[in-house]
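User: Please run a holo structure prediction.
Assistant: Happy to. Please share the sequence and the ligand.
User: Here you go; the ligand is adenosine-5'-diphosphate.
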Amino acid sequence: RWEMRVGVAGPFRIVQLIDRTGAYAAEQMRIDFVANASHELRTPLASILGFIETLSDEAGADPGVRGRFLKVMFDEARRMQRLVEDLISLSRIEAEKHRLPDERIDMAELVEVVRADIAATDAERARAVITAIESDVPAVCGDEARLSQMLHNLIGNALKYGRPGTPVTVSLRREGGMVRLSVADEGEGIAPEHIPRLTERFYRVDAGRSRMAGGTGLGLAIVKHIVERHRGRLDIASKLGVGTTVTVLLPPATDAVTKA
Ligand code: ADP
């Protein structure tokens, strides 16, 4: 995509060709994002409106029907709520892009906090989470709320896509001067051609399965932004039928970071 500008300078005509490929790609991504987000919101909204209409006529008089319909409406409204919360998170994280995180975070502690959070809402699921944490892992320089969100998204995915009854292993250790966190599941795995695209907004391998499990399609896009903001690295390794391991490398905090 080139833009041509023609000008005159004295006796010369100047033709300037400007490469706009990047700008067009960014614009296209923005258009796709708004279209996808609207579509994702429209579907549950249409369903809620449909059920309200049905409840307003005779069918609504039957308590059994009413109970069932209200349950569906509740689930659909929760789906919209999750999506709106993820959209807000994404835009906040993008807005914070240029502000470096400055809290001293003990990742081992944070992993335990997140595990307790998961246990508070679903004790059964939390039992699948096992941790392998080395004792000498240095603190990282980070934003606690965001790192917690990153852990929730990664552990949540491992629980969602892992086979029932299999463990999710969260490991933390020091590696080559970095803090290495990994979340491994024994699930269906992901075919290699999908892996590079998983951090795109709304990219899903199986949209139906993701929605059934309560996914928004934004979890890994949020994780990628958080990792980038912490100057870290994200790696997804997977084998079909075996499982998936997501690894995050974060730089350790320097002594200059004192804020607790
Ligand atoms: P979602 O809300 O759909 O889970 P994510 O952005 O978190 O969205 O993940 C994008 C897609 O990547 C998912 O829809 C799923 O297809 C795939 N995926 C993510 N984590 C895993 C995993 N641990 N095992 C298998 N597939 C996964």
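The first helix runs from residue 21 to 56.
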